[in-house]
Amino acid sequence: FKDEEVQELLARAGFKDEEGIVKGVIPGKGGFGVVVMVALFASLGGMLFGLDIGYIAGVKSMRSFRHDVLHGDPITDVEDSDITMIFGVGAAVAAFPPVISTVVDNLGRKGSVICGGVVFCVGALLQGVATEMNIMMIGRFIAGMSVGLLSANVPVYQSEIAPPSHRGMLVSIYQLAV
């Protein structure tokens, strides 16, 4: 860093006379292997997205779903579309800039990734124990919120931890996981 103001701010933050500051890079604590492992773990958020979108079609056609949630009635076109649609609504709500900003500001990027996984588990649990259509819809909405949170947060988190020379490769892991 050549700018004296930046040097002063870094010094106030506790980065004094470190080799990385002179070179213009603030060093991290892990090596490239750690960055790859963190990027792979964070990409599980993308896998949750693909998993949830993929399994719901099969679930809606199961006899046990019709028996347990619909009380033996066949699924109507409206119910079918509502189950699919509410997931996307939850994702859009959580990815809405004021919502994602509040979560990330309070929990940080890493905390938001962890929170997204926990929220997905809550949504999946509600879907798994649903005995009424309303509970199923709430579970789908919550699972969708986790996917919105992860979709808006994980690629940014991956790009922040990745070295510039490998940033594109590591961020694309999320898309591959979807």
Instruction: Determine the CATH superfamily.
Output: MFS general substrate transporter like domains
Portion of residues in beta strands equals under 5%
Fraction of residues in helices?
Answer: over 70%
* H-E order: HHHHHHHHH
Overall average pLDDT: 85
Q: Rg, please?
A: 21 Å
| Coarse shape | elongated
Give me the count of strands.
Answer: 0
Our count of domains comes out at: 1
Q: Fill in the CATH topology.
A: Growth Hormone, Chain: A
Q: Given the structure, what is the number of helices? A: 9
* CATH class label: Mainly Alpha
Contiguous low-pLDDT stretches (5 residues minimum) are: none
Structural category is: mainly alpha
Describe the biggest sheet? none
Q: Tell me the distance between the termini.
A: 38 Å
A few lines on this structure:
By secondary structure, the chain is mainly alpha-helical.
